[in-house]
Amino acid sequence: MKYLFYLFIGLLFPVSVSAQGLNIVDFGAVGDGKTDNTEAVQKAIDEASRKNTTLVFPTGTFMTGMIHLKSNVTIELKSGSVWQAVPDLKLFPEIPSNADLSQSGGYTMSRRAFIFGDNLENVTLTGDGTIYPSGDQHEAFPMLEENGSKRPYGIYFRNCQNITVRDLTLTNSAFWMLRTYLCDNVRIHNIELFNHANTNNDGMDIVDCHRVHISDCTVDSADDGICLKTEAPKGTEDVVITNCIVSSTASYIKLGTGSFGTFKRITVSNCVLRPTRATKIVHGLGYRNGITGLSLMSVDGCDIENISFNNIVMDGMMTPIFIRLSDRHKVTHTEYNHHPITAGTIKNISYSNITATNIGSVPVNITGYPEHYVEGVSMHNCKFEYNTAGTVKDLTSEVPENSKNYPYPKMYGTDLPASGIYFRHVKNIIFDQVQIAPAEGDPRPAIHFDDVINYRGENVLVDYQDIKKKQFVIKNSGKLKAGI
């Protein structure tokens, strides 16, 4: 009798937990690429969270508006499944900031998102399917040069713990594709990400998060590829980025520009940085091969410490390595005004086994500002090959401090008076097995030192065709030991 009773209940209530968990079709979702399934998918997620189980998207194209994720749920997109945003701005309401500045600061601008998780734990997005936020539907999500509030993030996690995004294809968001903010224990693995649909099309933005693993991902984005930021006092710490292929028409891997808290204990290893596969360039500056390869920027008062780059191969981009310490001191939003902003620092930065080829005309540049030094930069077994020469004018052009300006290699109004590496306001540099191959016909010296204290170079090779050309220029500097 018990068996018959449970069989009868199952016939009345067919939505149940199977070996694979729940299926969105059982909640009324239709994968025809036309039906708005927002209500059905939200109900399915709520139920999967209540039962602490997996929710499956089967083959088909399932359209929704904004979806609120819930704790203790795994969402699996099966092969052939597409989760697509309905191109209708009304279905993506603004998300209040809910910033608690007394505790951790907060990103106080309201935003929108396609898939949103707030104050959650134990959430996984996975599978062989595709998440497509419809960012190329410009009538719904207009192209704006500024960070417009009418363009939703693709996936946005805020104040979350134990978040995993893995094995998925993420394509064409209206804004940044994946943003994690004030989160801990984040794992992003084996993602295929392509984001060339709109302006400000970053790939991944990890903001004020701790204990983050990004591995085995392919990222190709119109704006920054993998970008770490800090927009609150919490800072971004304990991050590993490894085994990734990254392309960008802006910065490939970047710490900054938002730099309010701290960047500490971060490693980037075993990565390939290469030009984009996109056929149409949507970034406003129009640099097909990208602007910077590896960038560190403390411009709003943050401390950057103990950062390591190892086994990186780069091709293209204007500038392979860019470090900038300055005092832009941009207050992200007015609510930060009561937080004191002090001078930032950049210390203990290591580059090893780096190869960069087909570099543009702006050299590696590592700069602080007067009386504020970048400290402790080491390079071991690094090679830089340039394919675009500077000009004679660059030799005598004034290099302004411009410490309040937005940091990027063209911020000085000149390509800098060095063909390989430009240092200004830097302490304690160690070079070992560094090779510089300037572009043919470049009149500039290989390395320019300006206000540099304590440099030691061993086995530094400059591959000039004209061996009589001056290789080093030293200004306002002391205690330089060039074992070259």
From TrEMBL:
Keyword Signal: yes
Signal peptide: 1-19
Gene Ontology terms describing biological process: carbohydrate metabolic process
This protein's record includes keyword Hydrolase: yes
Keywords, comma-separated and alphabetical: Glycosidase, Hydrolase, Signal
Pfam families xref list: Glyco_hydro_28 (PF00295)
Similarity comment: Belongs to the glycosyl hydrolase 28 family.
Classification via PANTHER family: PECTIN LYASE-RELATED, PLASMIN AND FIBRONECTIN-BINDING PROTEIN A
Official protein name in the record: Exo-poly-alpha-D-galacturonosidase
Organism: Persicobacter diffluens
